[in-house]
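user: can you give me the structure for this one chain? tokens are fine.
assistant: on it. calling the predictor now.
[tool input]
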Amino acid sequence: MSTLIYLAWGRVQRPRANLIQTLHTVEALTDLGIATRLYVPPVPRRLDRADFFRRMGLYRPVDLRGALSLHRRWGGWPFAFLHHRELRRADAVYTRVPQVTLALARTGIRHWHEVHDTATLEKRGLLVPLLAACRAGRVLGLVAISGASRDALIAAGADPASVHVLPSGADLAAFGAVPALRLERLASPRAVYVGRISRDRGLGILEQVARDGCPVRLVGPADDAPAAGVPGLEVAAPVPHVGVPACYAAAELALMPYQADLQHAASISPIKLFEAMAAGRVVIASDLAPIREVITHGVDGLLASPTDVAAWRDAIAWVRAHPQAALAIGQTGQRRAAEFSWQARGRRLAALLGLR
């Protein structure tokens, strides 16, 4: 049996999209018969693991191991030293944490690195040493989550042959079970936004959509407070990942108005995009390069300028005026989402790492 060690910095106490993606990828790899050990920073002793996995939308437990030596404050160095023999014996080592990658590289551990945000890597001075580790053969390859991210890495000097694209995914069974769109509801659709609520994720657009008469429900933690008293704007508490399908069941439109100044906008591969498509909802998303890799305007979703409120108003007006065509877009998006299952991501990653 092949063995994989996956090193992450996601905290089970505050699970965010990065940990959700990691957990589902590890579950898919485990289902393939790959013995995958997922190391994260310290896990609370009283954590009910079965309940935690359920809340994250997993169907079975994964080998989750908390390690004090992987605490963020130490940058991965203690873990690299303390687990050196275990890391060398594994068939593959994988991480998406640049600080951990540099610690592994300097201690001679060859491994793979997944890149999510090239802009932040460059801003923090981590991109140059990461690419140097690739050229030295300590990083065996880079896994970019979007073509735009791949292009940025190559433009920065990465060997094109060392960069591979592997987008995020969705649980097709859970989101495919969401009740189908009803044609009559598209004449007066309800919209939902699921995720962190902030100005750079398009809170201003969402507020204006509500003001224009389309009910909008925001579900997630708020980094920025929504304007008070906006008619039609509902702010709901965050839900565990297992509860996200129900959020889409109560809406016809899934809005994703990411702004260009969002830290990772240039390389984004949002889980919620694939989940909304898998739920058969009509996706209206910002017209950004990485989003265009997934959504073809008018075919499996609608694209709108991130800063043009009128474009979002027009997109929703089009849905109201053309419910049959909008229904077809949701159905096409659902079929397209089949390409982005967690199982497919696991198979592709296992093949890339030489584990199958």
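assistant: here you go. Residues 3-169+341-352 form a domain with the Rossmann fold fold (CATH 3.40.50.2000). The mean pLDDT is 96.
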